[in-house]
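One thing: can you check what follows?
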Amino acid sequence: MDEPDPEWLLEQLDLGEYEVRALTELLTIGRTTAPTLSEATGIPKARIYDVLSELSDRGFLKVIPGRPKEYQPKPPAEILDRAIENRRQTFESERQSIQSMREEFLETFRSRFEAASQDITPTEELFWVVDVGEVSERETRQLYATADERIRVFTKSFEYLPAVEEALSTAANRGVDVRVLFVHEEYLEPDNQAVQAARMDTLDAIEGVDYRISESKLPVRGTLADPSMEYESGKALFLVEEEDIPLALRQAAVTENASFVAGMNRLFELTWEYESLEG
């Protein structure tokens, strides 16, 4: 297995090129002075103090008083913890900034939206579409994150699971009932059969996730969140089977119509109960 690139790892902490170079060297050689670090890294002497000040402000190193000053990196675990806290504080600051303009935003745009929406038909209001890929995966993660009671997934091989696994696992860990309905492998190409087997292994490792295998083809693929047979709640993202159209060219439909979601859930539960096999 190849060793990870140290500079690439530090770039994930939103550090610039010079900050990455400086911190990589500090973590390699330990406590040192600014001139020595400048010479070792090629960072111009006119910039090295600003670079070290930035790393200090972020909490990634300690400044040792003296003549000359010395700079010592924090332990890697402490650097990561501080990076997480820095990002949390940034997010919270941005959240508060957006929240502070809520009243003004609504007052400015609500009437415009209502006027522009007068000609939308009931059918157009029932669904909206998103591109399949990163956009649909982001929407799926949001469904998992906001589900309170149930998540139901129709899928062939769950090939996109790596992109949504963390959100699915988090939902299961907080007690959401998660069920996944796979298509039987006889309806899959060999490559998809291998993907399906790997995804089942992944789901086996997530406590609280149950799955079964449909005995027949499924007419749709997608996710239901909090379906209610009382038509009180529910949201769904789905696409119908169109084997002749490449997945990258398809669009998925999203709906918050509780009645429609309840109907899809009825299909799921009947298939789960009467037309599926244990995985």
In short: Residues 30 and 72 are 6 Å apart (CA to CA). The domain at 122-278 is CATH 3.30.870.10 (Endonuclease; Chain A). The longest helix spans residues 76-100. The chain has two domains: 1-119, 122-278.
